[in-house]
């Protein structure tokens, strides 16, 4: 299902004086977040020693956000926190093919107790060429930057590649590239990162919900195998008032469970205004609890549909949903 993300993501959002005042007010301790405790080995990293960083995978531990303006600035995430009074512990951004790792954004995310989540998008680049090593120089450069970030900060990142392959709207997706080629490209990306010693990466295999009406099939043909996946991400959105978590996400969760027991994150989601945001937000959090999932990443954007948390009722529902998620800590 289209998640309303098509088009150029290279937004540039300036921080207004009013927004700065709102951000300053956050320090009163009204904003809360979940604080993941990462485990790391070899943190001295002397003489280029490898640093392995593993994120905890406890159910109901993560609440993330994407907001226009990232990764050029971290302020959009701060504004999201100020508005919702929930500080995300996942900060999502999309990385076009050929773009460098945004170490400045990632460092700011860590400073604000969040894990950087990067969705690498190959665009119109041929996945067969990625799989055969034609872009290894770029991948090695990206991996080296991620490795350096882990060694310098002691924190890991989450990376997805060519997300939602079972959908047809991206040039790397269903009907454009064979699943075998997609899997070969995914495995090659992971292999290159590992060969460079970028062991601070949690690999997020990100699929779309299953929807037979819109010809979005089960993701099985795109499964890279347990050796190449750390977590599973499922993207899905509430468009209509009648939609609820079990019919929306349940088929994809069941399909994933036939492939792996890896932890599952609702990696991109929102509710449209017409669907009734407060009720759908409550349903979303209840579903995550019932299925024992890691958490969610909210797509706080007005594009195709207005997914933003922009009313007191929606914000209240979001804050209520976060209660009981993991360990809460004041800013």
Annotation keywords:
single chain; 331 residues; alpha/beta; TIM Barrel; 8-stranded parallel beta barrel; disordered N terminus
Give me the count of strands: 15
CATH superfamily: Glycosidases
Q: Report helical residue fraction.
A: 25-40%
Unreliable stretches covering 5 or more consecutive residues: 1-33, 42-47
What is the CATH domain class?
Alpha Beta
Q: How large, in whole angstroms, is the Cα Rg?
A: 19 Å
Strand count, sense and closure of the main sheet?
A: 8 strands, parallel, barrel
Q: What is the first-to-last residue Cα distance?
A: 36 Å
Q: What is the average per-residue confidence, as pLDDT, rounded to a whole number?
A: 88
- Give me the side-by-side strand order of the main sheet: 4-6-7-8-9-10-11-12
CATH topological fold name: TIM Barrel
CATH architecture: Alpha-Beta Barrel
How do the helices and strands follow one another from N- to C-terminus? Answer: HEEEEHEEHEHHEHEEHEHEEEHE
Shape: globular
Helix/strand class: alpha/beta
């Amino acid at each position: 299902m289209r998640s309303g993300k098509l088009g150029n993501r290279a937004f540039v959002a300036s921080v207004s004086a009013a927004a700065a005042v709102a951000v300053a007010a956050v320090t009163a301790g009204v904003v809360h977040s979940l604080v993941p405790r990462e485990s790391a080995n070899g943190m001295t990293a002397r003489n280029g020693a490898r640093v392995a960083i593993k994120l905890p995978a406890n159910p109901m531990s993560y609440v993330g956000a994407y907001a226009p303006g990232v990764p050029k600035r971290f302020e959009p995430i701060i504004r999201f926190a100020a508005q919702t009074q929930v500080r995300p512990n996942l900060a999502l951004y999309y990385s076009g093919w050929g773009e460098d790792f945004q170490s400045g954004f990632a460092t700011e995310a860590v400073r604000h107790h969040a894990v950087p989540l990067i969705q690498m998008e190959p665009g119109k680049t041929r996945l067969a060429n990625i799989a055969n090593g034609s872009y290894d120089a770029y991948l090695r450069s990206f991996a080296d930057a991620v490795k350096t970030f882990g060694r310098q900060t002691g924190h890991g990142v989450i990376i997805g590649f060519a997300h939602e392959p079972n959908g047809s709207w991206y040039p790397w997706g269903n009907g454009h590239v064979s699943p075998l080629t997609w899997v070969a490209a995914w495995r090659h990306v992971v292999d290159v990162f590992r060969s460079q010693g970028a062991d601070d990466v949690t690999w997020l295999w990100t699929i779309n919900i299953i929807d037979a009406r819109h010809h979005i099939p089960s993701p099985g043909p795109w499964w890279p195998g347990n050796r190449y996946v750390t977590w599973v991400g499922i993207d899905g959105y509430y468009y209509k008032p009648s939609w609820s978590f079990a019919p929306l996400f349940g088929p994809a969760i069941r399909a994933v469970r036939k492939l792996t027991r890896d932890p599952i994150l609702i990696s991109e989601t929102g509710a449209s205004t017409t669907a009734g945001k407060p009720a759908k937000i409550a349903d979303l959090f209840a579903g995550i609890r019932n299925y024992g999932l890691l958490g969610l990443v909210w797509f706080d954007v007005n594009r195709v549909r207005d997914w933003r948390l922009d009313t007191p009722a929606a914000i209240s529902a979001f804050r209520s949903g976060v209660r009981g998620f993991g360990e809460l800590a004041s800013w």
